[in-house]
Design goal:
The chain is an alpha/beta fold. The chain is built from eleven helices and 13 strands. α5 runs antiparallel to α6.
Length: 330
């Protein structure tokens, strides 16, 4: 093992209580409830080198968040081994905490009723940062993330996008060598997502930090990462560069047209009508047959566009395609 993150045959099994039907059975379970094994992570192995930005993706329940919690020392594994910067996370959690940063999209490390600046000052004490070092680091991050006007506002008054920028500043203040991101753009609008993605990538490039990012949004992994790990039911299905994933599996795009005309027809090879409503048309495009640019051009010629969006298929569909391909192999 020699990478920033090293995982070898890692597994996690939870004991899940089995619910019985009927009041009598439920009462008996108060004293001796039967359980079953629920496998969250099943023999996972991979290595991530220093400075790599890796997407860790899969459908709900695939084991992504459970793996991150083991790699940050929150959970103990059932079996296997892992090293993060040479530390065993669940044994060396305190020492490791000084060298890693974490952002969980649905959890906050900011004090909700206090200004973000107060949390940043508290974190400097928690990480035993020299005052001058902290001020230099904070000033650089505030400028890079554009959060100067937000520092003295209570966190409860921030928008979700503003809060996530402050969350990232908080996670980067102590100069972590590895950054774990669990759904960092969840719930954000398109503009806020783009800002967060660029900030994560630019910070990693500047600091040389390693990033492991989980997301259901293909835009996150395509914009931030260079490599992707796909897991399903706790097992690794795919480990390859983003470019290879895009070439092999992301061959379709979903185009939504909002037009002045009530109905619009785009007749091109590989373009399929998915949904049709007054002034709204949704198309699925096979980019191997027709590039998106041609679809947009045809739509402009056939209508007066009010708005247009181009999206990748849901990550669940991509993973299903990968899983089906893996199942088909002998």
């Amino acid at each position: 093992m020699s990478g920033s993150i090293e995982v070898e045959n890692l597994s996690k099994v939870f004991k899940v209580r089995v619910r019985a039907a009927g009041l009598g059975a439920a009462m008996r379970q108060l004293f001796s409830a039967p359980t079953r094994d629920a496998v969250a992570v099943d023999g996972l192995s991979f290595t991530i080198e220093k400075g790599e930005r890796v997407a860790f993706v899969g459908p709900n329940g695939a084991g992504k968040s459970t793996t991150l919690k083991m790699l940050t020392g929150i959970l103990h594994p059932t079996g296997g081994d892992a090293r993060v910067l040479g530390h065993v996370p669940w044994r060396d959690r305190t020492r490791l905490a000084y060298r890693i940063g974490t952002v969980f999209g649905q959890r906050t490390q900011l004090w909700y009723h206090l200004p973000a600046a107060d949390t940043f000052a508290l974190l400097a004490r928690i990480y035993d940062q020299d005052r001058a070092v902290h001020q230099r680091r904070l000033s650089a991050l505030v400028d890079a993330f554009g959060v100067g006007p937000l520092l003295d506002k209570p966190v409860r008054q921030l928008s979700l996008g503003e809060r996530m920028r402050c969350e990232l500043v908080a996670s980067l203040l102590h100069g972590p060598e590895v950054l774990f991101l669990d759904e960092p753009t969840i719930g954000l609008d398109v503009t806020a997502k783009a800002v967060i993605r660029d900030l994560i990538r630019d910070t990693s490039l500047q600091d040389g930090s390693t990033v492991l990012l989980t997301s259901h949004d293909t835009g996150d992994m395509e914009r931030v990462c260079d490599r992707v790990l796909v897991i399903h039911r706790g097992r690794l299905l795919l480990d390859e560069p983003i470019a290879a994933l895009r070439k092999n599996y992301i061959r379709r795009k979903v185009v939504t047209l909002l037009t002045a005309e009530e109905h619009v027809t785009v007749d091109l090879p590989g373009v399929t009508l998915v949904e049709k409503a007054p002034h709204r048309t949704v198309l699925e495009v096979d980019v191997d047959l027709t590039p998106i640019e041609q679809v947009v051009q045809a739509a402009l010629q056939a209508s007066r566009l009010r708005d247009l969006t181009v999206e990748d298929p849901p990550m669940e569909e991509i993973v299903q395609a990968i899983y089906a391909s893996a199942e088909a192999q002998p």
